[in-house]
Amino acid sequence: MKIETTAKIFKELGHPTRLKIFKRLVKAGFEGLPVGSLQEELTIPGSTLSHHISNLASAGLIQQRREGRTLYCVVEYARLLAVISFLQDECCLDMPAGLQDNQQSNEK
Question: Which domain range does residue 44 map to?
Answer without folding.
Answer: 3-92
